[in-house]
């Protein structure tokens, strides 16, 4: 039985169970999923997962063109849960792409209680209305749900967005939008936010708090706060003021200038006057925030270490909350808190997946015992995602519960998101968590940890070789691969004509050839499979330095590009690498059809026989590689 037949049979067998489970309201299904053990929850999701959910994985996983087409087809059927679910997924996607009108049109055709959690749908609906300037309608959409769930953080923050847009600019209006937000802080026993001038620099967003009393436990532990800065603007004063106001007064604040050329270090020294807790280090060249944090760690004296971004603002009781928790739980190595992202206008921002909620984990809030952090080797020396990787290393070393999230529904940090920040830029942005550099980095790190066995997951010192590969453009000193051969293929399955790909690639490496591989999955038109990564054996090769796994949007030079199987190229992929090459050879399987070869390189593809592909490989080194032909 072929893969397609087996998948279809599985779908037929699950259909009756899906039918029984899907009569339950969607919010109840979500609640059940949160309360069941992880393994059982995954099985439940498998049973109730709509075809729309499968295509959603491809939508975010690099196949937006075919996935959108299939979701459109599902949504057009109307009147079914699968159609409603497809409409919800498309609405979420459209809003994230800046198409609020299209998203709104889809939302208005989803029946009540179908296709999406009612609260998540209302939040997205209101955000679309706000984007289109229909403020009164947004407030009316949220009002009945806020009356029903007055303490739901996502509804409260969406309501605050509507109030802020409705404000006429007076001081009373500026404060009114914070009133519902402060219910969240009050319920958690925390100080409320304010919006008005206070002693010290005001917030660029008009947000501050009263200065809290010093925490009586602060003398028990010194907390070192590492703050990398690069070309810091006016928000730096507010970030530092938020740290100075912390109730945990036993602090040292180490600001690391990451090679700025605009006098940032001098600006920090001016802001630090009168507060001996603040010191400044300078990194000679820009290497990214994580390399700067590691430099700061060499000067840290604190029992506990945490970090802070230069354009974020932290609630003044945040550090006390985390420090008290670690002092009360000496068996735990670290903890984290939550955040909400907001733009320069003070609008709370939805994530790429609205069902995830506006309040989300803040990996930059990690507070960790300094001896543990030093034993781990600090942060990985890359430019993105090293916060999450460090948390994963902690869980690998100390267990899944090693990094608890405190007050998971209270945003203890307001994280500014600028249009040009790493979290928003297209090549390294948050969307690459599903397809792109963050995804590739995350998979490479997980493969390395999985192979450690009982060994401790320590990051190597700066000049030592990396323990796992990272795309060159996120290294402290960015690099672009320069390859002899670049293979483009579905690296998750056997390749026609290359039955022993792993062995062949090893031989190419032994011959001294720089070889790369870009994984372009062969898409099952039924969408029954999941987005798949390269075979683990190929990740092992990459970890040994014998192969370069090229990631989406990477810029690559290659003398020869080889496509031994043209089938993957018949379906377009998002953000392929940008390749310059001398030769571009694609095997001709005689089936015709459009090949999206031009997405890779401007050089025209030359269709050749598989025999010529093999001959080109043989040409690369004198002896014929065993296992091919």
Q: How would you describe the overall organization of this protein?
A:
- With 629 residues, this protein is of the alpha/beta class.
- Among the domains are: 1-48, no CATH class; 218-427, Spore Coat Polysaccharide Biosynthesis Protein SpsA, Chain A, CATH 3.90.550.10; 480-620, no CATH class.
- Helices cover 39% and strands 14% of the residues.
- It is built from 22 helices and 14 strands.
- An 8-stranded mixed β-sheet has the order 3-2-1-4-7-6-8-5, with helices on both faces. Strands 11-10-9-12-13-14 form a 6-stranded parallel β-sheet.
- Helix 5 crosses helix 6 (81-96), helix 8 runs antiparallel to helix 9 and helix 9 packs antiparallel against helix 10 (153-166).
- The longest helix is centred in the N-terminal third of the chain and has 19 residues, at 3-21.
- It is globular, with a radius of gyration of 26 Å.
- It starts with a helix and ends in a 9-residue tail after the last helix.
- The model is unreliable at 1-8, 17-27, 198-202 and 624-629 (pLDDT under 50).
The assigned structural class equals alpha/beta
CATH A-level architecture of the domain at 218-427: Alpha-Beta Complex
- Let me know the largest β-sheet: 8 strands, mixed
Unreliable stretches: 1-8, 17-27, 198-202, 624-629
| Count of distinct strands | 14
CATH class of the domain at 218-427: Alpha Beta
**Strand order, sheet with most strands:** 3-2-1-4-7-6-8-5
Radius of gyration using CA atoms only: 26 Å
Estimate the strand proportion: 5-15%
Going by CATH, the homologous superfamily of the domain at 218-427 would be Spore Coat Polysaccharide Biosynthesis Protein SpsA, Chain A
In angstroms, what separates the terminal alpha carbons? Answer: 27 Å
Mean of pLDDT: 87
CATH topology of the domain at 218-427: Spore Coat Polysaccharide Biosynthesis Protein SpsA, Chain A
SS field, number of helical segments: 22
Task: Tell me, briefly, the overall form.
Answer: globular
């Amino acid at each position: 039985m072929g893969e397609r037949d087996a998948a279809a049979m599985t779908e037929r067998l699950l259909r009756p169970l899906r039918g029984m489970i899907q009569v339950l309201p969607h919010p109840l299904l979500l609640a059940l999923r949160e309360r069941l053990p992880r393994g059982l929850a995954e099985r439940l999701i498998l049973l109730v997962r709509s075809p729309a959910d499968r295509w959603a994985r491809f939508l975010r996983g690099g196949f937006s063109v075919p996935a959108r087409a299939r979701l459109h087809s599902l949504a057009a059927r109307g009147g079914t849960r699968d159609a409603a679910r497809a409409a919800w997924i498309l609405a979420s996607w459209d809003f994230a792409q800046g198409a609020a009108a299209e998203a709104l049109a889809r939302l208005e055709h989803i029946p009540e209680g179908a296709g999406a959690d009612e609260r998540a749908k209302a939040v997205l609906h209101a955000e679309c209305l706000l984007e289109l300037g229909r403020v009164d309608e947004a407030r009316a959409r949220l009002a009945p749900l806020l009356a029903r769930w007055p303490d739901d953080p996502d509804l409260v923050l969406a309501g605050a967005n509507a109030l802020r847009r409705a404000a006429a600019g007076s001081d009373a209006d500026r404060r009114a939008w914070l009133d519902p937000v402060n219910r969240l802080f009050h319920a958690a026993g925390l100080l409320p936010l304010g919006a008005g001038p206070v002693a010290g620099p005001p917030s660029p967003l008009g947000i501050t708090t009263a200065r809290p009393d010093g925490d009586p436990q602060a003398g028990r532990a010194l907390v070192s706060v590492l703050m990398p800065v690069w070309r810091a603007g006016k928000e730096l004063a507010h970030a530092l003021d938020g740290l100075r106001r912390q109730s945990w007064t036993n602090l040292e604040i180490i600001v690391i200038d990451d090679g700025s050329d605009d006098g940032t270090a001098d600006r920090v020294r001016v802001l630090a006057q009168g507060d001996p807790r603040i010191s400044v280090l300078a990194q000679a060249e820009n290497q990214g925030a994580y390399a700067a944090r590691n430099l700061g760690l060499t000067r840290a004296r604190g029992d506990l270490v945490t970090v802070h971004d230069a354009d974020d603002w932290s609630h003044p009781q945040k550090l006390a909350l985390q420090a008290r928790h670690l002092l009360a739980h000496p068996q735990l190595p670290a903890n984290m808190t939550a955040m909400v992202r907001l733009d320069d206008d003070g609008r709370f921002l939805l994530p790429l997946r609205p069902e995830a909620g506006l309040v989300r984990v803040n990996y930059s809030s990690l507070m960790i015992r300094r001896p543990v952090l030093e034993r781990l080797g600090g942060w990985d020396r890359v430019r993105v995602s090293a916060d999450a990787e460090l948390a994963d290393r902690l869980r690998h070393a100390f267990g899944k519960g090693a990094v608890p999230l405190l007050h998971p529904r209270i945003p203890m940090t307001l994280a500014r998101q600028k249009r040009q920040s790493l979290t928003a830029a297209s090549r390294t942005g948050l969307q690459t968590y599903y397809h792109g550099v963050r995804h590739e980095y995350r998979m490479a790190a997980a493969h390395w940890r999985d192979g450690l066995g009982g060994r401790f997951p320590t990051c190597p010192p700066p000049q030592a070789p990396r323990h796992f590969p990272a795309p060159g453009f996120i290294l402290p000193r960015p690099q672009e691969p320069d390859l002899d051969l670049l293979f483009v293929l579905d690296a998750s399955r056997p390749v026609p004509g290359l039955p022993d790909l792993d062995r062949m690639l090893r031989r190419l490496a032994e011959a001294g050839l720089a070889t790369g591989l870009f994984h372009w999955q062969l898409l099952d038109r039924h969408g029954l499979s999941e987005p798949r990564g390269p075979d683990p054996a190929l990740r092992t090769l990459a970890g040994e330095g014998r192969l370069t796994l090229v990631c989406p949007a990477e810029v690559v030079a290659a003398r020869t590009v080889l496509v031994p199987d043209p089938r993957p190229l018949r379906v377009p992929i998002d953000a392929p690498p940008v390749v310059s090459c001398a030769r571009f050879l694609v095997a001709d399987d005689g089936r015709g059809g459009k090949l999206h070869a031009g997405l890779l390189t401007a050089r025209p593809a030359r269709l050749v026989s598989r025999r010529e592909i093999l001959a080109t490989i043989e040409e690369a080194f004198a002896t014929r590689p065993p296992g091919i032909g």
